[in-house]
Every structure is written in structure tokens, then in C-alpha cells.
Predict the 3D structure of the following.
Amino acid sequence: MCDINLEDVVPNEALDAFKMLISRNNIGLACDFLMRHYRDEYWPRRMGPMPPLRRRRSSSIITLPKPKSVSTPISVVISTRRSADDFANEPISIEDLATVLYMGVGITGWTQAYGYGKYPLRSYPSAGALQPVEAYPVVNNVLGLKSGLYKYDPFDHALEVLRLGDYSSLMADIALGQDHVSRASVVIILTVMYARTYWKYWKRALRYVLLDSGAVMENIYLAATGLGLGVRAVGAFYDNELCRFLDIDCMGEFPVVLMLIGKGSL
Ligand SMILES: Cc1cc2nc3c(=O)[nH]c(=O)nc-3n(C[C@H](O)[C@H](O)[C@H](O)COP(=O)(O)O)c2cc1C
């Protein structure tokens, strides 16, 4: 759990106390001891420059329409949310996709942080405000957009075009052959930039990126439900194939869940 290299992080004067706790097999207490007394001293020494928050992957950009406002009360949205069993092979509008992306991972405010005078805040809570979650829509059937792989840019509320083509069957294959994946109008692949959260939180980062992406998953469920769309999370997929498709390394950045969206057929 607290998988550390002692020499790297434990100050000399604390080594004996730390080793004593470890020898009693109380790893949790040993980690807590380290956090309580030495966090401020060793943490900043480990931190190089923050990994970039914004990484452009394509110069081909499509600006998205403004997100719609959804009037369904939150209590109704939460209590009626369900995973769609399947999807009618019908288009959704680009406004719907823009709304789901904005409500899922959009920039909703600004603050001052990490030496930046203007630092974004998101629709989802994020450990240390490090915002590791990236959204890659794979468009199958969206009015006004060609089929293909895109990346959402929350700064410009735009899509970067990564690769055009029909990837609906490939998506289903990558999702262990789950047929309904091919009938979704769009599959939003959520990845996490593990390296961003690791930069500050080190071994706790795995918990935090998964918590952050879980919040995004629920945002997307609720946004789609509020818009009257079908939605389903899919966590079963071949990691390596998905990483190859996205052209990511599966280490510093890795996929966590696919969000299927379309006209639901429950
Ligand atoms: C992390 C996670 C992974 C999931 N993976 C799959 C999946 O691979 N395929 C699928 O059809 N549904 C998947 N689901 C959807 C669940 O089956 C669904 O949420 C569950 O049956 C409860 O139904 P409800 O969402 O309608 O309440 C997943 C849901 C979550 C949260």
C-alpha cells in the first residue's frame, strides 16, 4: 500500500522509528508517521515541474456548440439513472455530445494555483485539482461530425481530430466482443494521466485517479440521463489494444472506462 524506497524518502533521524514500525509489520502506521512528521520536508524535493495540463495532439480542431442547459431536477436524474441495455443505431446531435463532454469534464471555473494566475477547475472534483482525466470520443453516429477518434479540449470546448474512420466494430472487439458497444452513437474513452497525480501524490495517486475518473463517469451518466439519452459504462476491454488505438503508453496515461452514449433501447 505504502510501497516506498526508505533511502529515498525517510529522513535519517526518522529511520529508526520508521524501521521499528515496519518490523512490527505496521506498514500503515509507518506511512502515517511519515506523512504526519515529514511530508513538508521531503515532498517538495521530489517534485520537478508539474506535468502539463494541456497537451495538444492535433492541429485539426472543431469548435463545439455551447452546452445545452438541462432542466430536469437533479433528484429526478439521480433516481432515474439506469444503464441502457442496448442502443438504437440512431444519431445524437452534436449539441448533446458537447453537453455531455462539458458536464463530464468541462472547465467550470478558474482559480490561482501552482504558480499559475489562471488555473482551471472542472465539473468533477479532483485530488489536488490536478485533473488527470482525459476524454476521447469515438464518434459513430453524431449529426454534424464525421466518424472517427477525437480528443476533447476543455480549454477551447473543442474536439481535436485524431483519426477519421468507422471504428464501431473495433470498439466492440476491444470491449471483449460486447456487441452493444458497436451500436452506441459515441463511445467516450476516459483515460487518466497517472503521471500528473503521481507528480504530487506519489503512491496514493492510483486511488486518486480512480476516484477522479469515477466522478467523471457519474457526471456523464447524469448528463446523458438529463438529456434523455441512453448511457452505459463499460469497464471490460483489452488494455493494450485500447492503448495502441489511442497511441498512449498505458503507464503515464492509461484508459479506465468506456462511456457508451446513444438513443437508448432499454
Ligand atoms: C466500473 C464499471 C464497469 C462496467 N463494465 C460494464 C461492461 O463491461 N459491460 C456492460 O455492459 N456494463 C458494464 N457496466 C454497467 C453495469 O453492468 C451496471 O452499472 C450495473 O448492471 C447496474 O445497473 P445500473 O447502472 O442500471 O444501475 C459497468 C459499470 C461500472 C460502474
